[in-house]
Predict the 3D structure of the following.
Amino acid sequence: MSPTLAGTLAVLLFALPLAGCLGNALLGPRLGRRFCNVLGPGVVLAGFVCAVVALAAVLGAHEGARSTTVTLWPWLDLGPGALTVNVDITIDPLSVLMCLVITGVGFLIHWYSVGYMADDETPWRFFSYMNLFIFSMLLLVLAGDMVILIIGWAMVALSSYLLIGYYYDRPSAVTAARKAFITQVIGDVALYIAAFLILVNLRVPSLQLPTVFHYARESFPQGGALITTICVLLAIGAFAKSAQFPLHTWLPDAMEGPTPVSALIHAATMVTAGVYLIARFHTLFDLAPVAQGMVACVGMGTAVMAGVIALSQVDIKRVIAYSTMSQIGLMIFAVGIGAYSAGMFHFATHAVFKALLFMAAGNVIHALHDEQDIRLMGGLGLTMRQTERCFLAGSLALAGIPIWAGFFSKEELLGLGSSHGPWAPTLYLVGVGVNVLTGLYAFRLYFTVFRGVPQTARTYAAHEAPPVMLVPVAILAVLSTVLGLALLPGIPGVVGPFILGGFLDPVFTAFGGQVLTEPGRQAGLITVLLGTAASLIGTGLARQWWYQRKPDALVVAARVPRVLTQLSLHRFYFDEIYDATLVRPTRQLARALRTVVEPVYADGWVEAVGRGAGWMSETFRVLQTGRLRDYATGMLVAASAFVIVLAVFVR
Amino acid sequence: MLSIELFPLLLGLSAAMFTVGAVGVLVRRNPLVVLMSIELMLNAVNLAFVDYGRYLNSEDGQIFTLVVIVVAAAEAVVGLALVSQVYRSGRELDVDDLSEMRE
Amino acid sequence: MTAVDLLAYVVAGVALVSAAGVVLSAKTIYSALCLVGNMVSLAVLFLLLNAQFVAAVQIIIYAGAVMVLFVFIIALLDPGHDPDYEGPRRDPRLWVGIVAVGYITAQVFALAVNGTTYSKADHVLQGQRLAQAANPGDQHSFAFDPGSVNAAGNVQVLGRELFTTFLLPFEITSLLLIVAAVGAVYLTRRLPHAPAEPPGATAPVAALPEETAPEPGRETVGVG
């Protein structure tokens, strides 16, 4: 792929959403809703076309030349031997895959938003933020330099903040936005420190990604403390962005944003940036097995924890949010054990079916006039036939039932996990447990919302969503049915070519990395059968427990220990712990400063300045006569004084 | 050719004209006379420029003079437009009456 | 003292007197005429100082255009006497002013003569010597001795300087002129709402027949 083409595509991919953002913000209020409805999704669709062109170009190049890093323009040059930062972009299979998902799923969600936000008063603000997010996300994935990546990393946090707090007159939304932003800043700081450590210790002072990877092996000894620190810091950055333990509490609260936002940012793209980050820095993680082990354990732990919490939540969006957290935990686990391609595969399928679930949930919420409590739903399959079908496809994909997309990606990564990394069999068995949990919460949601007995009169008045909100959902439903089969035609780990893996693997072997080998036909068959059985068991149990049940049975699934249900119900008490250990002490410190320190040391001085200004104005106001001649006299006197001073003192 | 003794004389003339103009600005209340006094001050500056330029063997003073003439013309145009507007609004032509800047 | 010097003394005296006339005249139109006199005498001084082009511009623009504008406005507004001007003797500030004029002029003259800025010994200005000592290669200033300027032509030399070295200030000056023209047009436009007549004023309808009726004994020239 020629550098010119790569540069052009990258500039287009940046410029289109940015133009959409500015156009919506500046012209939207004047040109009105229809303009925003065209411009907002339009630029993302154009971006998708660019991404497809990039894919074609990458596929057209021969295997060794698929990765291109281009310097768009030099940015910061501190001279030879010091840091040089250029606006570099990297187009390789990994970034192209990310771009395709971001713009493709992003376009469908923008399209859906046209219907979902039809009653909103400021569509220009909404689409402006959404386009800004697409721009930031593309900046993040196309970055060929760590500084650019960090800029994109921070900008997605910003647009996430703006969109969670979109309904800024709702205090809970504002609080949630702040919480998300602060949590992500913790990750940002970790990422900055990692970047500084790399810069200081790398043999050449550069943060350009290919350069970093090229010199990584000779700069950092395998398994050394330094590279482990760097990778742990990178992982903390990834955890904050991807809502992994212990920085996960912001994601459920982020559901305060409009539902398309939840679908785009908090399910499909931004929260998976952590997975992308670890996959992108695979060369460094390969050097630090301890950090890899930690990442894998945290990922799997979060997957279990979020799965358990999802079982007891009653807000439809929060259930999906916890399921997102759980699925991202699986992806993090995959990239932690080094199964990068499998992790990215699950990212792609998850983006599709999770966006689908969110948007179908959005249809339900819309139809019930902003009702999100699943205890008040039920029986919606009667009135919302199409939405129910789509939701079912999404749930099947999520639960990992064969032939739906989730089955292929999940079995691929669990299969690889069964034979690699420390404590592989243990983690694998936990993963099987996650499969059961996934089936449980996926179909708990489906059964309680769409089947069973309607709980309120509103259910009967519910109407099917308009086509603009149904067609994107339907497209995603088709995709989540066929995408897995298209990218891995066969049985994961047993037969059939892993097409996506073949496409992505050269990225991960470019700097001397190794690709995990599949566990072999027999072991693969066992893992697939085990995983599928777990999924089916989970689904079956869900039907057993929640099909046509009363709302009070939603919370407590009778046959589990009370401790577990309490933990699940209270989300493992994380909010309470953070509140007691971090939030409240900080607030008390602030209050102490306010009552003790500030009145004396700040207010005293500030008020003195204010009083002084008031006194001076009172004194000098006699000079303001309003008469031209007095002013001219003043001017002349001052000029004369100036000249005299000059003549006397400056010789 | 003027002899060099005239240099301080013309400089003195310039200073005198400038001060006379300044006195006019401060003393007179008719805005037209005030404007004319300002023109007088600008002319004094012009004289100093040309005088210095002549005795420094430099053309820069004359360039400056041209610019000052243009500025003076612009100032006269705007000033007179203001005066005529004040007059048309039915007020007396007295700079002391134009004291809206106080409030 | 040459004849040229004598002429300069005379013209300088005229300039000073006419400058005083601008400020001291009770009638505005006399002020304007004094200003014209002042400008013309300055133009003569410019000629004597080898600034032919500036002298011409001084006559054409200042004494011509600007002063015509002044006289035109005076004729248009006809303020007549400055109602509150009590004459030079009655205004104490004027006496302060005259003292200031005398003092400042004497100071400047003394400074110039005493060589703070001008050294009589070698007939070179202090500033000139300092500048050339500091920067011997500087050919930009001080390079136009009157002989060579006269040989090349004052207008030509000035023009070349104006369109090369001082091109940017020149262009900015033209911008200033446009701004002034636009400002003047804006300021003198007819206001959409004329100030309301105070209540009790004579109704214009009633006044109309009297004004339009031709006065007896007055020759009327009109279309009708």
Observations:
- The radius of gyration of chain B is 17 Å.
- The domain at 4-99 of chain B is CATH 1.10.287.3510 (Helix Hairpins).
- Chain B touches chain A through 14 residues (CB under 8 Å).
